[in-house]
Amino acid sequence: MLLFAAGAARAQSDDPLRVIVFGAHPDDAELKAGGVASLWSQEGVAVKFVSTTNGDIGHFEQSGGPLAQRREAEVSACADIFGITTEVYDIHDGELMPTLENRRKVVRSIREWDADIVMAHRRYDYHPDHRYTGELVEDAAVTVVAPFFEALTPGVDSNPVFLHLYDGFQKPYPFQPDLVVGIDEAAEAKWDCIRAMPSQFADADSWQGRYLPNVPEDAEERAEYILDYMKTRSAAVADKYRDRLIELYGEEKGRAIVYAEAFEICQYGRRPSEEELMALFPAFDE
Fold this sequence. Notes:
Layout: H1 8-11, E1 18-23, H2 28-42, E2 46-51, H3 64-82, E3 85-88, H4 100-113, E4 117-120, H5 128-143, E5 161-165, E6 179-182, H6 187-195, H7 198-201, H8 207-211, H9 219-240, H10 242-249, H11 251-256, E7 260-265, H12 274-280
Parallel strand pairs: 1-2, 1-4, 2-3, 4-5
Antiparallel strand pairs: 5-7, 6-7
């Protein structure tokens, strides 16, 4: 597939596309974009996931340094599964703030990765870490191209494409599915990643273990029960945006897709046409 690079320099070279995805916690990027990251990786695209906090309070039995180390190890295992790179910021879970220091940190990450595409949460979300991750990344859409902001790292030649990760929140306005990507071919990699994150998706005292209804007490049954629930979430994205999948893939293939991930073009950054956006993503080459 021909990949249209987001930056002018990339468009004139044979360098691979470069994508960076910011999630608030060590599991957010993996859940929202793990399938497309795996597909991208198979095509030689350089993908990096960044967690803006270390996830050190996202459990009901352990916390602090031991949990942060455990969660970093889990997303490192996911990175190996997907064939990507990962990084976890040393910021406490629940304590991310949209400060100048953190804006500089995000800008450095985008520049150092030389990103063509940048993804993050929308700023409309139930969790403050999600909201502030979205705000920090949106703010970076201006400052990342300013050569004298954080001048020790060079500014990018042209503004990346900024995209929002899917969410179901409705106010002040609902998520818009500018692109919905079928991930059936990468689904097993995504499920393997979820299996590799028991602190979130298998422990009795994990977030899902505590809050999902009727979770089995047996450890193996509990892990499979939670995994099945996470599968239904990916399937729900495909069902919710079935009409959009048909528009993008055609009737036959669009109806056949079981699992999907969805993305919205941010109003900041470079705004590609639908044709170019599709060319940037895997799975639209058939």
